């Protein structure tokens, strides 16, 4: 039955990609006659939700998505985007390599995903577009780690991205992501998209992988002012996510390279996530 189910998923995924391409073409045509269609975000949400259903991913949701927040999440897989995108009308900042993925990259770009090159200060390349989205009240999710992990740790959060919330006057809502095997809490080893993996190879493994469960925990928002040091915002967001995932407080110190931020996460789930203002700006 497992093999039969896997075989049936392949044509369903192909048909879903084709439907996405048709919608994208319609968006391009309509956009050339004026404003982008207002229904794009809702259709993208539906597309993500349908993809998760085809792949057989069961989503366990905790917490509540708050409006007028910049979402920040730990990053494990390309699956992070559809599982979170299925929860509401959410835009994403993704690494530039995704733009080069056949069809998927094009669909993501048409849907409004922003792409960033790796390297210092590259956030400036897309900051104007991100600020515009936030100013229009659009919900945006970023992955401050800048890369994916195997799900057993949360890497250092790069502070520069948190300036977006400061400039927009928005709160930050941490989002904790995890993938489990079946009904238990055992970390899933197939879902992580790491090292030199390719999209096609990973997608085929997901298709053959039953009982994948994705946990999404929307944590309490963090209040922000323009005076908050960005590195403090990054540390507090990361601490909230680490605590929600039940990881040891020194997980980064014990697993990550010495160059990573070694602050000890000590925020407990449910604790109010209000950051005391220091009255100074941080240059990082």
Descriptive keywords:
284 residues, alpha/beta, seven-stranded mixed sheet, globular, disordered C terminus
Give the topology, please:
Layout: H1 2-31, H2 40-55, E1 58-63, E2 69-73, H3 80-85, E3 90-95, H4 104-111, E4 114-116, H5 127-135, E5 139-142, H6 163-168, E6 171-181, H7 199-207, E7 212-218, H8 230-244, H9 251-255
Parallel strand pairs: 1-7, 2-5, 2-6, 3-4, 3-5
Antiparallel strand pairs: 6-7
Helix pairs in contact: 1-2, 1-4
Structural account:
The protein has 284 residues and is α/β, with parallel strands linked by helices. Helices cover 37% and strands 15% of the residues. The chain contains nine helices and seven strands. Strands 1-7-6-2-5-3-4 form a seven-stranded mixed β-sheet, sandwiched between helices. α4 links the parallel β3 and β4. 34% of the residues are buried. The C terminus is likely disordered.
Largest sheet: number of strands, sense, barrel closure: 7 strands, mixed
- Structural class, from helix and strand content? alpha/beta
Strand fraction: 5-15%
- What is the number of helices? 9
Spatially, the strands of the biggest sheet line up as 1-7-6-2-5-3-4
SSE pattern, N- to C-terminal: HHEEHEHEHEHEHEHH
Q: What helical percentage do the residues reach?
A: 25-40%
Low-confidence stretches: 251-284
Radius of gyration, rounded? 19 Å
Total strands: the figure is: 7
- Mean pLDDT across every amino acid position: 82
Give the assembly state of these chains: single chain
Q: Write down the overall geometry.
A: globular
């Amino acid at each position: 039955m497992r093999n039969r189910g896997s075989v049936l998923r392949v044509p369903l995924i192909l048909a879903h990609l084709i439907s996405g391409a048709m919608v994208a073409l319609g968006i391009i045509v309509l956009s050339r006659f004026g404003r982008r269609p207002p229904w794009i975000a809702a259709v993208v949400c539906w597309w993500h939700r349908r993809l998760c259903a085809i792949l057989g991913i069961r989503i366990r949701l905790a917490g509540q998505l708050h409006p007028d927040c910049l979402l920040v999440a730990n990053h494990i897989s390309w699956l992070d985007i559809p599982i979170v995108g299925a929860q509401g009308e959410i835009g994403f900042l993704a690494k530039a390599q995704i733009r080069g993925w056949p069809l998927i990259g094009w669909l993501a770009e048409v849907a409004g995903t922003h792409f960033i090159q790796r390297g210092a200060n590259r956030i400036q390349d897309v900051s104007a577009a991100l600020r515009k989205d936030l100013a229009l009240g659009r919900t945006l999710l970023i992955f401050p780690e800048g890369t994916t992990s195997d799900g057993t740790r949360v890497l250092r959060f790069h502070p520069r991205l948190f300036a977006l919330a400061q400039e927009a006057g928005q709160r930050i809502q941490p989002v904790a992501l995890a993938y489990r095997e079946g009904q238990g809490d055992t970390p899933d080893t197939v879902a992580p998209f790491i090292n030199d993996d390719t999209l096609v190879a990973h997608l085929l493994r997901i298709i053959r992988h039953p009982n994948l469960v994705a946990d999404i925990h929307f944590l309490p928002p963090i209040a922000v002012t323009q005076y908050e040091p960005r590195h403090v915002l990054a540390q507090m967001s990361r601490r909230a996510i680490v605590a929600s995932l039940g990881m040891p407080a020194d997980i980064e110190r014990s697993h990550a390279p010495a160059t990573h931020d070694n602050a000890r996460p000590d925020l407990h789930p449910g604790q109010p996530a209000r950051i005391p203002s220091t009255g100074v700006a941080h240059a990082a």
